[in-house]
Write a structure and sequence with these properties.
Blueprint (H helix, E strand, L loop, with lengths): L5 H18 L4 H27 L7 H17 L8 H58 L19 H12 L16 H9 L2 H6 L4
Helix pairs in contact: 1-2, 1-3, 2-4, 3-4
Length: 212
């Protein structure tokens, strides 16, 4: 089977649980309980997908997580083959379903939350790095414009016209939980640098992204 991203493998597992729960009454209780657990961890899976899209590397343990989802889907679909008149097999597979649910819940409580916390710090570090890089670019541009020597980091202008609405919109986007990064794009002379400086010096943004 081709390797799936965590979200895709998770969706296949959730679909298998829903389908088999409707088809096989003898495992309905265990599968409905598993479905509830999957619903509770879905936000974490979505966070992992978003972080993977922002960071330049896949999270460590992503392959392990995919394997867990794929193994879970396989286990759930095997329940379709268990006959009602085979109580031993029913007992064994009911136990396997409970063990899978427990191991998955434990993995998310320990490993995944630790990785999300780590990658959240990496995003904060990335914001600081981008700010430093932007400051250097601005200084180089100032030098090329006729300033002598290495200029200090330019402060936010005391009087800025026409950016209040854009600033508030950008802040609202950045402070949303589901938007860890926003791309600022516009033609030259439209105030991208000034708006970026305003954002980087905004108290709410600095506190949220731990900008020193």
């Amino acid at each position: 089977m081709a390797e799936l991203l965590g979200g895709a493998a998770f969706d296949l597992l959730m679909k298998a649980v829903s389908d088999v729960a409707l088809t096989v009454a003898s495992f309905r209780s265990e599968l409905n309980h598993l479905k509830g657990t999957l619903t509770s961890i879905k936000p974490f899976v979505e966070d992992i997908e978003k972080l993977n899209g922002v960071l330049d590397y896949r999270q460590e343990g992503a392959e392990t997580l995919n394997n867990r989802f794929e193994q879970g889907e396989k286990l759930v679909r095997e329940c379709l083959k268990i006959k009602r008149w085979n109580p031993i097999q029913k007992y064994l597979y009911a136990k396997k379903l409970k063990e899978f649910e427990s191991s998955l819940l434990w993995y998310f409580q320990i490993n995944v939350q630790a990785e999300l916390a780590r990658d959240g710090k990496n995003i904060s570090v990335g914001v600081n790095f981008l700010q430093e890089k932007m400051d250097k670019v601005i200084s180089i541009q100032n030098n090329a414009s006729g300033f002598s020597g290495w200029c200090g980091v330019p402060e936010v202008p005391d009087f800025v016209v026409g950016l209040d609405v854009l600033l508030q919109e950008m802040k609202a986007m950045l402070l949303k939980d589901e938007v860890p990064i926003v791309v600022l794009s516009a033609p030259d002379g439209y105030g991208k640098t000034t708006l970026a400086k305003l954002l980087c010096n905004d108290d709410e943004i600095r506190d949220s992204f731990k900008i020193s």
